[in-house]
Amino acid sequence: MSEPMSEAVVAPGAVHVRAPGKLNLVLRVGPSAEDGYHPLATVFQAVSLYEDVIATPAEEISVSVSGRHAQQVPTDERNLAFRAAALLAEATGTDEGVHLQIAKQVPTAGGMGGGSADAAAALLACDLLWETGLAREELGHLAAELGADVPFALTGQTALGRGRGDELTPALARGRFYWVLALFADGLSTPEVFATWDRQQAESPSTTAALDVGDDVMQALVSGDPHRLAEVLVNDLGPAARELRPAVGTVLDQAESVGALAAVVSGSGPTVAALAADHASALEVAAELRAKDVADEVIVVTSPAHGARLVEPVRES
Ligand code: C5P
């Protein structure tokens, strides 16, 4: 399994925060509202693939990025972590700056909330560095201003999401689930995926009644049984992601034949998450998918995982 950044690299006076990527175990989509956004009913679960953000005191706000797909990530005001620091400074009236060093594991534009995890980690790191002392709830309000997936990256674990996905209710989940992730270096554009869903709906409307996450999903999570969870995985954006990126369909079609219990697209894709029965099975499924060369990278992760939190520096003894 991929290892997050070492705890030992942080300079004195710096703050190191780690926040998780997410999967959508269920993602139901409704027709877009007047603001152009589609209402969602989703189940988020955080996974053991993390973004590390190290915040160091500085005059201005700046960002540097390393790790997976780093070359695709802007370091200016378009960066969500940059915006998080600027928003916190504005909200608290501080005139401090910060350098944010981001080490990425979560794929960029992959449907796993990597940018949102950066923003959540940056909010918490700057709050600690600047000693602005905001309550988690206040950080949550700022998080929601930054993007729909940012509040969940703060809280982690398992949660139901409504509205744009930012109205969170914690959900109970037992056990640990093993996932094989098929990653693509080339991401998908979220607006394009939703626009494709609109077109597909216009051509052949689906007859989903209420926009809801069923009780069977909550029961499967509580059972901790991956076989039960496999029965309920669903993503309404799957067909759109498949249309825009045929390789997504290839992975979805092959996952079960190589031993996965089920596979689902995460968020607006293109990441595909295949659920395995246990760790040994996950390693086998990953090896089979790698041999088939269906994605740019195939990795194994577990869920659920914690939300944004401080990584304590390792003390010299
Ligand atoms: O949340 P984010 O800024 O990534 O969304 C980008 C775009 O994706 C939105 O402007 C909208 O076009 C589309 N979107 C949507 N419904 C959502 C989330 C995103 O239509 N629930």
Automatic annotation (TrEMBL):
Transmembrane segments: none
Molecular function GO terms recorded: 4-(cytidine 5'-diphospho)-2-C-methyl-D-erythritol kinase activity; ATP binding
Keyword terms: ATP-binding, Isoprene biosynthesis, Kinase, Nucleotide-binding, Transferase
Active site, UniProt feature: 22, 149
Pfam families in the cross-refs: GHMP_kinases_C (PF08544), GHMP_kinases_N (PF00288)
Domain GHMP kinase N-terminal stretches: 79-156
Binding site for ATP: 107-117
Record GO biological process: isopentenyl diphosphate biosynthetic process, methylerythritol 4-phosphate pathway; terpenoid biosynthetic process
Location of the GHMP kinase C-terminal domain: 218-292
Nucleotide-binding is among the record's keywords: yes
Listed pathway(s): Isoprenoid biosynthesis; isopentenyl diphosphate biosynthesis via DXP pathway; isopentenyl diphosphate from 1-deoxy-D-xylulose 5-phosphate: step 3/6
UniProt keyword Metal-binding, yes or no: no
InterPro entries registered for this protein in UniProt: GHMP_kinase_C_dom (IPR013750), GHMP_kinase_C_sf (IPR036554), GHMP_kinase_N_dom (IPR006204), IspE (IPR004424), Ribosomal_Su5_D2-typ_SF (IPR020568), Ribsml_uS5_D2-typ_fold_subgr (IPR014721)
SUPFAM superfamilies: GHMP Kinase, C-terminal domain, Ribosomal protein S5 domain 2-like
Family, similarity comment: Belongs to the GHMP kinase family. IspE subfamily.
Function: Catalyzes the phosphorylation of the position 2 hydroxy group of 4-diphosphocytidyl-2C-methyl-D-erythritol.
Protein's name according to its UniProt entry: 4-diphosphocytidyl-2-C-methyl-D-erythritol kinase
Species, as recorded: Ruania alba
Gene giving rise to this polypeptide: ispE
